[in-house]
Amino acid sequence: MAPVLDIDALIDSPETRVIVCCGSGGVGKTTTAAALALRAAERGRQTVVLTIDPARRLAQALGLRELGNHPRQVSVAGFEPKGELWAMMLDMRRTFDDMVQQHAGPERAQQLLQNPFYQTISTSFSGTQEYMAMEKLGQLAASGDWDLIIVDTPPSRSALDFLDAPNRLSTALDGRMIRLLTGPAKAGSWGLRKVVSAGVTMFAKAVSTIIGGQLLADASAFMQAFDSMFGGFRERARKTAELLRSPGTAFLVVAAPEPDALREASYFVERLSKESMPLSGLVANRTHPVLADLSAEEARSAADALERDGRSAPLATAVLRLHADRVALAEREKRLLERFTRAHGEVPVARVPALPSDVHDVTGLRDIGDRLATQEA
């Protein structure tokens, strides 16, 4: 049997500085992250929650009209935490723009921001969203304004994108074609510039027939302007990777008790272990525990008996059949979770029962937090 995940011990520990909620899409990561942040603030932590999910569920649940790219304090009726709760939603383009303005200098930053190639990659380059999430996490950690940062990771088909993004984006921007584009700017002498420029000219003629001359010119101008801040870009990616591996970071894998979600969770757990990432446990979300000590077979037999005897008890019959279906569902979920724990017996698990309706306010988030913290051994 898997050990029980002690949520309160995790969020109460001053050693815990970052909690990363990850998993496949549609399993309740955003709600879980918000509930953890709310509970941590109510227990005295100075907490900020960062969501990458563009949906407005987090803002609505926290009683806010909207969230922006900078933290906003949560202050609503009925919420008087011992600590503080701040929330924000990642704006990928704004974060990229802020990074350029901070590290490139006024003149160079203006060149970059107005470049058409930059305007394209800042919103659509593979890995940009995940990397900007990490860039924002680094900014929040460096500020020192909060003692607990909770991250709701991007909703991607593969949670591994989040871990790979810094290295993938750095490698792509340091690739062979990019180095050829920046070659003329890096050449140190007239002779070398002449040779490199001749090579790039031949390269440009070949590539421009495929992607278009203007796009190639924009890309070359972008990379020459970007080159001065590229070292800092890679250095921050390295620091981000170190932060994710530090003892103060805790990864929580969130999954629904469904085959695909648990398969993704299993793969992610293995990857975290391989990469020496600090995994704290699995949150099995939206489970369906049995509410009465009555087997599915007994419930169906009782319902059949009522119908066979001709007794007019349609409500009782319906409740019995509903209970039988609930037991069957609970047993299926139990088998799936047992399969996961057999493969990963050392991973602590917290089970969160499904609610009858969506969470849309602080009370609902508090209920989720209570359920996360109340686990049976």
What can you tell me about this protein's structure?
It comes from Amycolatopsis antarctica. There is one protein chain. This protein is of the alpha/beta class and 377 residues long. It has 2 domains: 7-174 and 233-291 and 333-373, Rossmann fold, CATH 3.40.50; 296-329. It has 15 helices and 8 strands. The chain has helices at 7-12, 29-42, 57-61, 92-103, 106-114, 116-124, 128-143, 160-173, 176-186, 190-211, 213-245, 259-274, 296-308, 314-343, 362-373, and strands spanning 18-22, 46-51, 72-73, 84-89, 148-152, 249-255, 279-287, 349-353. Helix 12 links the parallel strand 6 (249-255) and strand 7. The N and C termini lie close together (9 Å). 37% of the residues are buried. Mean pLDDT is 79; it is low at 182-212.
Count of discrete structural domains: 2
Which geometry do the CA atoms define?
elongated
The helix content, as a percent range, equals: 55-70%
Pattern of helices and strands: HEHEHEEHHHHEHHHHEHEHHEH
Strand content: 5-15%
Mean pLDDT: 79
Summing up helix and strand content along with how strands pair, one would put the structural category as alpha/beta
The order of strands across the largest sheet is 3-4-2-5-1-6-7-8
